Amino acid sequence: MIDETRLQALVRMDVAQRLRSNDLSLTVGNFALALLVAASLHKAAPPVWVASWLGLQFINMAFHLWLGLRWLRSHLTISNAPLWLRRVTRTSGINGLLWLLAVQIFWPGGSDAQRMLLLAWMIGISSAALHSLHAYLPAYFAMVGPVLLGLLLTVLVHGAIDSWAILAVLLLGSTLYIHFAVSLRRLLWDSLRQTHQLAQLTESLRLEKDLAVKLSQSRSRFLAAASHDLRQPVHALSLFVGALKQNPSPAQSAQILQHVSSAVDAMGAMFNALLDISKLDAEQLQPQWQTVDLRVLMSRMAADHSLQAQAKGLRFVCDLPPAGGSQAALTVHSDPALLERVLRNLLSNALRYTTQGGVLLRARRRHGRIELLVADSGVGIARARRAEVFDEFVQLHGSGQGLGLGLAIVQRLSGLLRLGLRLRSRPGRGSVFTLMLEPLDEGPTEAPSSALQAQLQGEMVIVLDESAEIRLALTTLLSAWGLGVVSAASAAELMPQLMRVSTAPRLLLCDYHLAGGESGSGAIVRLRELFNSDIPALLLSGDTGPERIKEALDQGLTLLHKPLSQAQLREAVCDALLPSKASAASSIGLQLAQPLHPG
Hints:
It is a single chain. Helices cover 62% and strands 12% of the residues. It has helices at residues 4-41, 47-73, 81-106, 112-133, 137-158, 163-229, 231-244, 250-281, 294-311, 336-352, 406-416, 450-456, 468-480, 491-498, 520-531, 546-554, 566-577, 579-592; strands at residues 290-293, 315-319, 331-334, 358-366, 369-376, 420-426, 430-437, 460-464, 484-488, 507-511, 537-541, 558-561. The strands form 3 sheets. The protein has a 5-stranded mixed β-sheet, with helices on both faces. Strands 9-8-10-11-12 form a 5-stranded parallel β-sheet, with helices on both faces. The longest helix is centred in the N-terminal third of the chain and has 67 residues, at 163-229. 32% of the residues are buried.
């Protein structure tokens, strides 16, 4: 359900909309009543006073009409609704003071009949205000308070036919007006609250319906994919078994058995993928954390996939740091089975869509972290479809192999293992998948080297985070690296600071949840539009779910998961700000775009 704070804000915005839409008519109606009062009671006061009071009413009407037309040009939102309510309260207060002045002008010199008529007019004005302003009690009291108070004081000072009876009527009427105003206000606010709660419930039901439809469509895609892809190896098996029944020669039998083995392996891989997705959907797959030696794991996988690469005429390269060097240790804390499943899916996918060149499996230490990289010189992926490749049952290039679950499993297991997953690709030049892991032997982090610090010197970074403590910590750390920092809790709060900035930022560092309900991805889009530049951006989030990863990939953003170490932050900032590092990383894909020959 919707939270209480937002619910109150929505109700307040509805009230502001009601008052704003009635503001112009109330202003004109107030002046029309002033004309009627002046026409019926003009003999009770000097003409100069009456004319002066009408002049003030006209000036008040003209000013509020001009101001109201300006207000109507601006858009009413949750954030500026309190401002509108304060404006209406001020308008009501001015009207109330003018009617207080009317009582002081017309009552003292009027006859008893004229005083009773003025009293009737004031009661009528209070009733009209009750009808128009009960939605917001401060505005109602600002209008009615001066009128009723002025009548009470005037009766006490100047008297009337029966002062005590009139005072009793005024006190009773004031009590009733206040009671009715509070009751009507409560009724209206409860009605608006229920309306928004009903709208939220309707929206929740719609989302649940959409989810049910999506699940139904996913099941349909699953049945279509499974019925087609599983039929293929089963059909092949039936044919191979039929061929064996014909008593072929030993050489032919060996060849047929090889095909049978391949078909069985294909079926096994499909069933394993389906079981993985089912376990992930049911949240039954939990990591078994332990120490993993990546050197042993990757060497075994390289041996397994080298034969497959050679069969396709491709080169398979496994690049590991030299044993015994300063970068030799490749030990992490992870689930070895799940991590191996991630790498195997990436390697199988790379070999499947590569027809010339080769595949690279690399491990290296960068800025205190271990980077696992799977690169190929295959068909590549267009930027607009990069997020789509992680959907279930999607095969962009129609290989006809598998169920299209490999990268979907990679994404979901990466979130489960808290791996930083990145994708770079160019159509026709290949793809590069990168996984970031924390080493077990990571020591105290250091500041950037003097060379890096010199390159970072003076670059401006915008930091957006709802937490003041995190903004202070990030500002302190980035400033120590020589960067200029402008920080705020949201993009809206940042805008006044940007008026004093003379250079465009080189990097945006945004938390996903910002103040005022703003999202980090939305703030990045807004700032990029403001500076008319595709500024590099880092998005921080504690949510490791696949939806968040997909959203970041869809927008071309680098997603960093919290808690974030100093080494991770330093690496991400250097990758974003130093062109030489970015070009060096992208050169992997360019090198593999050329055919790789053995030797």
